[in-house]
Amino acid sequence: MSSSTTTSRTTSLRTTSGRRRTRAGIVAGATALVLLTAGCSGGTRVGGDAPEAASGDDAGLGDVTGEIRLAYWGSGSRVDLTNGVSDLFVAENEGVSVTPEFTDFAAYFQRLNVQASSGGMACITQLQGRQLNDYAGQGLLLDLQPLVDSGAIDVSGIPEDVLDTGRGTDGALYEIPYGAAYDAIMVNTTLAEEAGVGSPADGWTWQEFFDYARAAQGSLPEGVSGVNLLGGHPNTFIEWLRGRGQEVFEGTEAAFSADDVVEYWSIWEGLRGDGVTISAPDRAAEAAQVEQSWIAQGRVMSDNKPGNQIGQAQGAIEGAQPGQELTTVQLPRGEDGSSSTVLFTSGWSIPRSCDNVPTAAAYIDFWINDPEANALFASNNGAVTNTEMLQAQLDDESLDPATRQTLELYQEIVEDEPPTVLYPAGYQANFETAFQRAYEDVALNGADPQATAESFVENLDAALASA
Amino acid sequence: MTTTPSRSTAPAPRGSGVHPAARPVVAPRRPSQAAVVRALSRHAVLICVLAVVLYPLLWMVGASFRPGNEAFGTLGLWPDNFTLDNYRDGWSYGSLNFSRYFVNSLVISALAIVGNVVSCALAAYAFARLDFPFRRVLFALVLATLLLPYQVTIVPQYVLFNQLAWINTILPLTVPKFLATDAFFVFLMVQFIRTLPRELDEAARLDGCGHLGIFLRIVVPLSLPAIGTTAMFTFIRTWDDFLGPLLYLNNPDRWTVTLGLNGFLDATGTSAFGPLFAMATLAIAPIVGFFLVSQKLLIEGVATSGLK
Predict the structure, then answer these.
(1) ipTM of the assembly?
(2) Are residues B275 and B145 in the same domain?
């Protein structure tokens, strides 16, 4: 310990050690600066022009052969099912091999970002509408419209509104959506019955939804709230806007105003003040995984949740509160009855750096249209978008009840011509957490809603403009 | 700063070389009641803190013995419905295969330890003992790399390894360790070697040792605490590393334990928490074991190299 302050003896023997040390310090500083600037300078984008096979009358048509990489998020059974689909594809196309690359949703995007910035994206890459423009905007993805026009990928089974969720802000088709997720109101029917409010009415409005929770509150058991606190939930805000017929984004700008945000927050602050929602600290402490969420633990009677999570939520509540039942109902509608439900689709994209477009296109076409493959995958990642396949799955009597519930609700939603939201590049990074944080500032710290909303919208516009 | 070799003897054990007048001498006597109370309350506080720190870990171990859907229902540690199913199911869950992941992780960790210990010790010896042009500048450069956050170099590294066609091999995770790229360990060992008396080197030289001889016969045996520390930290870092394997090991056959654990989770599908907790419990076992075995070396290494 005593020696740690003494520098090495070699230098202490030198008479010029002081000067040398200064010089070394300068060099070290300069080096650090160079390293830092090198590290922080603009991104490196690798990736050439669109391959020849991706344009013209025969776009995406050609020899289906060779090795191809398939990147997607998922775990457990989804991996087995996807491998099964790939095996079917390989059986039909001799000389092709499909190498899967899969990981959890969050980690998937960590890896994808590194691969994208170095031209190493898999030829068939799974994306979602919410992140699509982050990649399409950088010119990383192939416009798939020519491949559709040439017949390489047949999308005739997918409803137009659903296909549109795979478009970029420039209107080009960057993703072929195969599985559609949507939000729904998850209701604990056991608690609702006990509280005497019964099941929600068909085609309810947002006001009826708030009243429903309010009516139940007095008769719910101690520690259980009528509804989760959704003032900071980005999806609910977007859906509430769409129910009023308002656009959410126009190009790369927010199409809503700070006043809209304040109005939305005031609804939730009113409910929170009356004790209809869980407390703000409890909301902030809620875990991200559905199994740990308050609705799946029996702490709230209703919540806005992805419709396809009903199976996991029901499984968790059977462990936490034996005997309680959950169900999902369509999101409330606007006053004029128009649908609020925004579809979140997962689909396949082809990067511009792909060197085997014909095989990638053939795989995507197979994935969307092959009856056997779709029967096997069975809407494992959102309701299948191909209407024919959807009907086939609903007709299958061995379908498990949770998936049936998800698919039936989806079928209802699609018949309603659901509104489409095109998420601009930078949405994920600049909207979701910022909106939640802004509301927490109001609910937890008592910040002024007007000022908070204004600064939120201002920051959002600035961030989207530069994304 | 003095030129007299005042540190010519090996560092004396703590306290023994201190002048008696340097600190008050307390007459040996029975500890008073107040002292006992103080000691007891201090221990009580420490035990409480320990319980708080360990609670999440113990909860996880407890949850690994509960049926999957009861995992989150309770804050209690002891499972009501004790089951070993999570361990049975988790070891080969669906397409996951933990026998393979543990072997992969062990191979990568072992290579990383060997690489780091050998290369960092050699580099440190050079910086601490050899006189060569630009030594100080080069050392400053090595230290400057400590300033670079890992994230900054990810993309250039990925491009490089991609060009070398090393994706899907363990090379990107192990080869750099043999090139003394972990500046922290180089620094740690340089500091340690500098505390070793030079007279030993000189004596060895008189007996006919070259640099290799001095390094192997004098420096390495005396630097064992620092080498142990390096091995320990390298093991923990490599074993726990997620981003590196995530980027470079896409093929499930080459996955490490951390990637396997991540394979239980899925935000858009069904997560398997019971098996996840079971395998996570197994995954921390080697670290706890390694730590218990080498903690004496570790603490000695940290204490004697003047790093806190």
Answers:
(1) 0.74
(2) yes
